[in-house]
Amino acid sequence: MQLIIENFPLLLTGLWHTLQLAIVTLLGSTVISVAFGLMGVARSGVLRATSMAYVEFFRDIPLIVNVLFVYFGAPLIGISLDPFGAATISFSLWGGANGAEIVRSGFNSVPLHQERSAVALGLKPWEVMWYVLAPQALLPIIPPFTGLFSLLIQATSLASMVGAMEFFRTSQIIVERTTMMTGYSPAFLVYGFVLLVYFVICASLSALTKRLETSLSERQSRRGGRKAAIPQAANESI
């Protein structure tokens, strides 16, 4: 444990870089997921085909291959990326492809008559999407999206393959440096500490998401109860 304490500033720096990478990746993945997920349920066949092609392409490529392809391929077209930028783009594209399928499935889980009823009431397309479909699609979307976020946070360790100084890479440096200086490998101790930190982060994210899911479920239940009480009260008054 003394080794962890002595190298804590370095580990803290790596953890901060990992959190930065995770936050940017989560934001990028969410934006891409929503965009291509909505394209996947659009009426236009071109938009649906474009979304399907994007999703299938990036889901069928291993993430590590995607990271290396972006990092070494970008300079060939005149784009110079540092390890952080290459990792961010790679993770966002991969996460966006998986998230788009989650968003598409969430909207497809809403009964078709909901949209038809909203259109019959004269709502505009964006009003149907925002006020009718999106609230109902949110609950089935949240659980798998939580799993995707956890995978993306764990995947940040792959940024070390292109030289990004994130949490896992700093732990590798500590292990290699200690082994060379002392002759013994502290790999079990250091990587065990890394495992614990990743577990705390992902478990905390999962707990927060479950609270959000419960809150949304209770809110929808109360809203449904109020809607059911209106016709009941009308019948009693008659």
How would you describe the overall organization of this protein?
The protein has 238 residues and is mainly α. α4 crosses α5. The chain has helices spanning 2-6, 8-40, 45-59, 63-73, 83-108, 112-120, 125-155, 167-182, 187-237. Residues 226-238 have low confidence and may be disordered.
Descriptive keywords:
single chain; mainly alpha; 9 helices; elongated
- Count of DSSP E strands? 0
Number of helices: 9
Query: Helix/strand-derived class?
Result: mainly alpha
Radius of gyration: 23 Å
Helical amount:
over 70%
Cα shape: elongated
Question: Low-confidence segments, ≥5 residues, pLDDT <50?
Answer: 226-238
Strand content: under 5%
What's the average pLDDT?
A: 83
Alpha-carbon distance between the two ends: 75 Å
Question: Element order, helices and strands?
Answer: HHHHHHHHH
Largest sheet: none
How would you summarize this macromolecular structure in one to three sentences?
83% of the residues lie in helices and 0% in strands. By secondary structure, the chain is mainly α.
Describe the protein's topology:
Blueprint: H1 2-6, H2 8-40, H3 45-59, H4 63-73, H5 83-108, H6 112-120, H7 125-155, H8 167-182, H9 187-237
Helix pairs in contact: 2-3, 2-5, 2-8, 3-5, 4-5, 5-7, 6-7, 7-9, 8-9
